[in-house]
Amino acid sequence: xxxxxxxxxxxxxxxxxxxxxxxxxxxxxxxxxxxxxxxxxxxxxxxxxxxxxxxxxxxxxxxxxxxxxxxxxxxxxxxxxxxxxxxxxxxxxxxxxxxxxxxxxxxxxxxxxxxxxxxxxxxxxxxxxxxxxxxxxxxxxxxxxxxxxxxxxxxxxxxxxxxxxxxxx
Amino acid sequence: xxxxxxxxxxxxxxxxxxxxxxxxxxxxxxxxxxxxxxxxxxxxxxxxxxxxxxxxxxxxxxxxxxxxxxxxxxxxxxxxxxxxxxxxxxxxxxxxxxxxxxxxxxxxxxxxxxxxxx
Lengths: 169, 118
Prior knowledge:
The structure holds 2 protein chains of 2 kinds.
Chain A: H1 3-24, H2 28-48, H3 52-77, H4 92-111, H5 129-138, H6 144-165
Chain B: H1 6-29, H2 58-82, H3 84-112
């Protein structure tokens, strides 16, 4: 077993364990804090895949902003920060079947892919991954349309958030 | 390649060790005489008024949402800024379009008073 594989297995175990804690803990603030552990694990996965920029984005945006937003949302909606209702709803067995089928389908599909059993290849030395991303973002043959549409998406979210917050006034 | 991240790993390990030492030593050697007064929330020496878990004003949420949106905007700036001299005028124009679209939302939020904290 290589060093990367050990790191991956430890990370995967941490992600699964903390994700289980997110859905099983009764205290909503604790659930949000466990979610931070899960998100950090995903950042480590990006780092293993050589996607260092995405790993930093994962930490800055998901942990630094979205997890904090979750905590604010919990603190402003619930007087009681403890969930007293049942933890399972009536359709839980159906969800297990759907989740199992989705996992099986993805696994079956990826098994046929030749890169499935290989580690991510190293970049050649001096390869500027962030620069390549920047070029791809504005090149007409690359992702210029999604890039500009992203600003429209952000605009819609911004206007929506402000409108909802001021709707009652 | 993962060795590039060794500094972060060392930092996490150090932070964990220091936190465990700080809490563990207190647990190990500190006297433990619990009473109902001692387990009350600390409120600068006076008796606490009301529950400790108060509802936060919606302002915090709004500020957090606005922070996320401008955070993501900055994330888009970074890869562009790394190569913007090579991209030339075309890249500059595209970033200008990107910013102008978001500026509309910024002006809307400003006019609505979302950036005020009265």
